[in-house]
Amino acid sequence: MQDKLKILVVSVEVAPFAKVGGLADVAGSLPQYLSSLGHDVRVAMPCYRMIESNPKYNAQPFMSEFPVPINDKITRIASAKTTSLGKVPVYLIENKEFFGAAVDSKSVYRTGADPYIFFCRAVLEMVRRMDGDWVPDVIHCNDWHTGLLPVYLRTLYANDPRFNNIASVFTIHNLAYQGEFDFETLAAAGLPEKLYNMDMLECYGRVNFMKGGIVFSDLVNTVSETYAKEIQTPEYGCRLEGLLTYMASLDKLRGALNGIDYNEFNPATDDRIWAKFSSEDLSAKSINKAKLQETQGLPVKANTPLIGLVSRLVDQKGLDLVRAAAPYFLKQDVQLIILGSGDPVYEDYFKKLQEKHPDKVSVTIGFDAILAQRIYAGCDLFLMPSRFEPCGLGQMISLRYATVPMVRATGGLADTVIDFNPKTGGGNGFVFTEYQSKALLDTIKRAITTYGDSRKWSKLLDNAVSSDFSGLRSAENYSELYTEAVKRARAKSLCICA
Ligand code: GLC
Does pTM top 0.85 for this prediction? Predict the structure, then answer.
C-alpha cells in the first residue's frame, strides 16, 4: 500500500478544458485515477479564455489578484479560478496578457518563454498563498513548459520552509520540443547566471527549459519503457542523450506507460458512437462501420477492410511512409479514413489522395472528438506508423474498441502492440520495425490477408479487446514514483541556493 500523498499535477494542456495532443488526455485522466487511489490530488493549468468563457466548466473565483515576482524588475499579476475534474480540484492561473487570447486548441501555445516563466512562478506563488495549509508533497510537472518549476523549487524557493520539502517529478511526453531560448531568458526568468552551465540549464548555447526540468527534479520519467531507452541514443535523444544516459545511470530516469480513461473510452457506454458494444459481444461493431462509411462518403461494404488514421499530421507520425505506400495498398480492396490537422504538406497530400480515390479514401482536416471516436469504433484497422512515439494513446483506444492497430515498433507502440502470430494465435496487432514504406506495405498486406480469414481475425479481435491499458495501472505506477521522489527530496541536503 502506497502512502497517501498531496499531489499537484501541473500541465499547460488538460482535457477536456484544453487539448492539443495526448498530453492533455493524460493530464486529464491521471489525476482522477490517482484520486481514486486515495491521494489528495489537484491540478494547475493556465486559465485560457475558452475555459473561463465556457459555462459548462463553471469556473469560480479561487484567489484574487496576487503578485508574481518574475525578476528584479518585473512583477506581474495573477489570479486564480477553480473548476473540477470529477472530484479533483483544478486551479486555473489567470493572466489576460498570456492566456486571455486562447480561444481554441490552435491558440493554446504561445511563442516565447514569458508565458511559461510566468506560469511556473505563478503556480508556486499560488501554493504559497493557499489556505488550509495545503502544501503538496509532490509537484508533477509535464513537458518543457513546466521545466522551470523544479528549477525554481531548488533555487529561488529552496530556503523557504514551505517549499523545501516539496518533491518534483518531471515527465517527458515528447523530447522533440524542449523550449530553447537565448541567454537573456535566464535574467528574464529571475534566475542567476551561474545556472548557465552544461550541467544545468545551458544546452548547445541556449537556455533549455526541458533540461532544467530533467536536472532539477527529483525523478524524471517518460511515458513508456522503450522510449526511456530510446532517448538515451543519438537517434531519439534530440541532443539530450548524454544527459539522459547520465540520469539513467543515477537511476533517476524511468519509463511509466500511460493509460487511457477506461470510463471515457468504453464502447459499451460511449454515446458518441452509433451502436454500443462490449468486449464479449462485438456484433454491433458492424453497424458503426456501415454508418462511418456512409457518413464519410465511402461505399458501404461490410467485407472491405476499413483502415483509420487519427493523428496530428506531422512528421513524427510516419506519414511520409503512408504517402509512399498508399499508391500500392490502395490497389487492393481496402478503404482509408483520415482525421487530423497539422503540416499543410500532409493536409494537401491527403486531400489530393481523396480526390484521386473518392471511393476508397475519406479525409477530414481538423479535430473532431466525436468523429475520432466513431473512427476508433467503426474501423477494422488503425494505422500508427510513427517515426518515434513516446507512448501513443490511439493504439490503446483502438484496442479497446476492437480495432486492430498496425504500428511501427517504437516507444510506447512497441510496449503495447504485439505482432499477431497466425500459428500460435498470439498478439494483438501488426508490427513492423524498419522505418521503410516497404515494411509498412508488407504489414498492411499481412493485415488484409488476416482480415480475410475469419477464424484468425476473430482470435485477433479477442486478443485486442483483452489487452489492458487502463489509466488505473498507470496511476499505480505514478504513486510509486511519487513516493520515491518524496523520499529522495527529503534525503537530499543539496541546495543550490541562488
Ligand atoms: C505526446 C507524445 C505521445 C504521448 C502523449 C502523452 O503527445 O507524442 O506519444 O502518448 O504525449 O504522453
Answer: yes
